[in-house]
Request: fold
Amino acid sequence: MQQLDLHSIAPGTESRSRIPGFSRSCALDQVRFFPEIRYMGSKRRLLPWIHGVLEGLDFETALDPFSGSGSVAYLMKAMGRRTVSSDFLNLSATLGKALIRNNCTYLDPLAVQRLLAKPAHALSFIQDHFTGIFYNPEDLRFLDHVSCNIVQPEHPHQRALAMGVLMRSCAKEHLNKPESSAIRLLLRLSLLGFPKALRASRGLVQMFPKRQPRGVFTISGDLAKYDDGRRDLQLSIEEHFFEQIDIFNQAVFSNDRQNKAECGDVFKIGTNGIDLICLGHL
Ligand SMILES: C[S@@+](CC[C@H](N)C(=O)[O-])C[C@H]1O[C@@H](n2cnc3c(N)ncnc32)[C@H](O)[C@@H]1O
Reply:
């Protein structure tokens, strides 16, 4: 088994793909469809270089144990390798299910219809806890609405796709302060069903009231004074949601392998049958 630490390799390795049908241009063409997920430490922009390094290695199966947004695992899948993505965050594992394990399931019109249907029992959890903190009332209503229905799509891959779409729609503003990223992450986790994350995010909001950078996750009250015309802020979460459905659907592809997505600590992952472990953790 090889262990590849991306941080210890200098850019510049050149070679050819070993799998017929998955040429350099094919894999890199596919990678262009990977959604721009604002994930801290994402290697998305480094993928062409990482691809150059991976091409020089002999491997059939690959594990990305710190998958994060899933960009590196997505590249390895695009290179035709049987790919396992894993991360201890539910958010990342969900993205892995949607884009790495999932080879051919889409959010089709019926699934979208189910997500938008009037729920039998309307919930107001998000409105109750986030009003006046994040987003406007219309966005919060939409989040509650879709969250009620997100268990509806029959297929687990559709659920993962819907969750990925919703999470990306929530991250509609780029923030660059560490506490803002932490708040954003906690909010996402709370949406994934971790109530403690919600309490922790509110605690963080209170800890950094004066140092908050502008951004929808950390601005409370009237957003008008922050609105400098950026498209992200112009669109409602509902508009982002529809845009992201297309983007995530386009990112789904098959490499004719049985890929896996797991949620777990790096020290507990089985490595049987894995040729290459790719450590893109920083
Ligand atoms: C910098 S991110 C990886 C970014 C990823 N390569 C990408 O392109 O998006 C590091 C990831 O490691 C995960 N992580 C950190 N410690 C971990 C552990 N002990 N077990 C599993 N995952 C862990 C974090 O949740 C985070 O998603």
Summary: Residues 10-18, 174-178, 209-219 have pLDDT under 50 and may be disordered. The first strand starts at residue 2 and ends at 5. The CA atoms of residues 129 and 281 lie 33 Å apart. The chain has two domains: 2-104+255-279, 109-250.
